[in-house]
Amino acid sequence: MKNLFLLTIGVTLVLLTACQNNADEYSASSIKALYKAAPDGVQTRWASAENVNAEKGKGGMSNKGAKGDAYTLIAPGSTKVIFDQQGAGIITKIWSANSLLWSPENRRKVKIEMYWDNSDKPAVSVPFTDFFGIGLGLMRPFECELFASPEGRSHNCFIPMPYRKAARIEVVNESDEIIMFYYKVDFLKLNKLADDALYFHAFWHRDIKTTIGKDFEILPKVKGKGRYLGTNIGVIGDSTYRGSWFGEGEVKIFLDGDNKLPTLVGTGTEDYIGTGWGQGEYANQIQGSLVSNKEHDIYAFYRYHTVDPVYFHNDCKVTIQQIGNSQRNQLRQMRKNGADFKVVWSYVSSEGMDASKRYLDMDNPPKIEDDEFADGFSTNFYRSDDVSATAYFYLDKPASDLPAIQDKETRTKLMKEKVYQYTK
Fold first, then answer.
1. Alpha-carbon distances of 317 from 97, 137, 236, 394, rounded to whole Å
2. pTM across the whole model
3. How many CA atoms lie within 13 A of 102 on its CB side?
């Protein structure tokens, strides 16, 4: 009887402790439990130009409450803090509509940066428009699980962003124009964040001319424990390959000590984003291709790992091969026109089960100009294009060891000539 009494007391204490922890801690998963009441101390707040500090009972104070400060102006060369909070919390949504809509050339001159727990280094530093789910500084109507632009005129982000001590979001205007900026940051103030909550990060990088045979790094090797959330990628095909297909490159994910070879590997670019045999325009919840301009080889597409998580415990790196596809005679003409490429594989359907020709495994592979180079159904080749990407991930620390964002000149070089004169 005594043992039963002690066991009952023990179970009761465990349950009370669990209840107390549930009251003190809060996680992003709790948000989706629509029927559950919030624990004590969890408070809903919105930060906007009408209530910059998201203070209780202080929204819409100017102009006697009649929409006096719906937007803010960001001067050329200045930084505007749009979110600055102390204590624990979770950002649940970010929305903006701004004058970048009418100024494509300025979109990569404006950055969004996010700092967690008073870190000196931003966890997010990305060109503003590229951050919100579509690359190349473009705007398109779309909706997916993490981002949306209902009519192609706004920016919405639904990624939960937890913090333990503090959070700050800045918009940095490196253009020569005043930016008219509407925004709202929705968040929850918490007593305590769940112990297993990770910090949100985003990394952007552009390679104006990729190296033949070298994979583009969507996410350079990042150290720590976390989760790769996905990417949006922009490709501007080199004009010397015009008329060929850019997207045969496989996405490779190196996990936890992978060196030369990855643990996770796909089968091709359009395959990674859920389609096949080329790439048109579509928007799904975790995958999509929002721009597919074949005439000028301009592509913007995304893939998010929400239902198929990619976890890492020590480190992670994500790359995509720079491989295109064409046929023998077109490749020969491209070579005559000065195109730089390296043939890697062909499919020669007339040879049945031996149709696949893996040239890099051959001691003396034929050259594209040789008579013995078979006129196959398709030939893959290493190529060099203008590629950029935003990688989204969570990490167990508020700052990573990744390099800083590239300068304004690198972000914007030739974008008007390559992209904006053909598509907005």
1. 33, 24, 23, 13
2. 0.93
3. 7
Both tokens assigned to 233 = 């990628």
Cα 187 from chain centre: 21
| 134 Rama class: left (phi>0) / alpha (psi -120 to 50) / beta | beta
SS3 content of the chain, % helix, strand, coil (to 5): 20, 40, 40
User: At 115, which helix (H) or strand (E)?
Assistant: strand 110-116
Instruction: Show the beta-strand stretches assigned E in 174-328.
Output: 179-190, 192-193, 199-207, 216-223, 226-236, 251-255, 264-265, 282-283, 287-293, 298-304, 310-312, 315-320, 323-326
Q: What is the pLDDT of residues 52-109, one digit of tens each?
A: 999 999 999 999 999 999 999 999 999 999 999 999 999 999 999 999 999 999 999 9
Beta bridge partner(s), residue 223: 315
Domains and CATH numbers, the chain: 38-197 (2.60.120.1390), 325-382 (no CATH)
| Distance in angstroms between the alpha carbons of the first and the last residue of the chain | 78
DSSP conformation class of 357: E
Predicted pLDDT of residue 21: 43
H helices of 68-205, where?
128-131
Closest CA to 369 of 332, 327, 324: 332
Cβ pair 70, 78 in contact under 8 A: no
- What is the three-class DSSP state of 331? helix
Distance in angstroms (rounded) separating the CA atoms of residues 404 and 205: 9
The residue with tokens 């395959």 is: 271
Please state, in angstroms and rounded to a whole number, the distance separating the CA atoms of residues 29 and 104: 37
Question: Hunting for tokens 């009952």 — which residue is that?
Answer: 8
Residue 328 identity: R
